[in-house]
Amino acid sequence: MSNFSEIINKDKPVLVDFFAEWCGPCKTMSPILKEVKDTLGEHVTILKIDVDKNQQLATQFKVRGVPTLILYKNGKQLWRQSGLASKRDLVQLIQSHM
Asked: Where is this site: Contributes to redox potential value (predicted)?
């Protein structure tokens, strides 16, 4: 994930999903994120980060539970939530920062 900071410094919203393969709610979140991407297309980047494979990054961003969703734009954290989020809420959130 050496290009992580490069990705979150883009001029469009970047939704980062810190997840784990063994996490039930993370599996529920996955199709929701796909629908968000299908709805917003090129207006958003969705980045999935496996906390087990990227422990240093998860520690750096103080991820204590999964799923943790963080929205960035121009390198600034705009929003953060642990747990599930609905497609409607995510689309509205991202559109408000486009």
From this structure: 24-25
Spell out the per-residue pLDDT of the chain, length 98, in tens: 668 999 999 999 999 999 999 999 999 999 999 999 999 999 999 999 999 999 999 999 999 999 999 999 999 999 999 999 999 999 999 999 99
Sign of the Cα pseudo-torsion (59, 36, 83, 79, in order): positive
Which position among 8, 15, 26, 33 bears the catalytic label? Answer: 26
As its CATH architecture, domain 1-94 has 3-Layer(aba) Sandwich (3.40)
| 23 catalytic residue (yes or no) | yes
β-sheet bridge partners, residue 77 = 72
Output DSSP code: residue 8.
H
User: Among candidates 6, 21, 74, which has minimal Cα distance to 29?
Assistant: 21
pTM listed for this prediction: 0.95
